[in-house]
Design goal:
- Helix content is 11%, strand content 43%.
- The protein starts with a helix and ends in a 6-residue tail after the last strand.
- Strand 1 and strand 2 form a beta hairpin.
- By secondary structure, it is mostly beta strands.
- The chain has one domain.
Length: 166
């Protein structure tokens, strides 16, 4: 069976058009968590930042290996950010998680971090780091469901900003 010339042209045009589309091999969930990029021109400024993530996680499985659940709720993170110089930013706030059906917040965690520009493209974050879905790891290595159960990640983080990654 051979293809007609119009079919070949259609396939060729489809392939050429598809070259211009970006595809990813995994789900991009970074829209759920934002991280304020460093502003080197904000020296001496104090900002109030309010982050919110409303969710309804529906994992209703009926099998012998995994018990299903539905998880509605929200997380909210009010914070103050102060630029102590053109290379240092301090962030202080709290992260609150509330699951629907509970009377109180399920989790209340302090958020404290220092973000330091250590070079043109190099950054260091100490304290509450740029975590969760920003790690950009595949699902078997880092479950995206952790964003509902683990409020903030803490530690020391070094990362490099380029146009090719990040």
């Amino acid at each position: 069976m051979s293809l007609s010339s119009s079919s070949k042209q259609c396939i060729l045009i489809t392939l050429l058009i598809s070259i211009f589309f970006v595809s990813k091999a995994q789900i991009d969930l970074s829209h759920r968590f934002t991280y304020e990029e460093f502003d080197t021109n904000a020296t001496g400024n104090l900002y109030f930042r309010l982050e919110n993530n409303n969710f309804v996680k529906n994992n209703e499985y009926f099998g012998e290996y995994t018990e299903g659940y539905t998880l509605p709720g929200y997380s909210i993170q009010p914070s103050l950010m102060y630029y102590a110089g053109n290379k240092v930013r301090i962030k202080i706030g709290s992260h609150l998680v509330k699951y629907s059906g509970t009377n109180n917040f399920t989790e209340v965690v302090p958020v404290v971090s220092a973000h330091v520009k250590i070079g043109k493209n190099w950054d260091m974050v100490l304290g509450s780091i740029k975590g969760h879905v920003h790690h950009k790891l595949i699902e078997p290595l880092f479950s995206s469901d952790w964003q509902y159960f683990v409020s903030t990640e803490t530690g020391a983080q070094f990362y490099h900003n380029t146009s090719n990654y990040g």
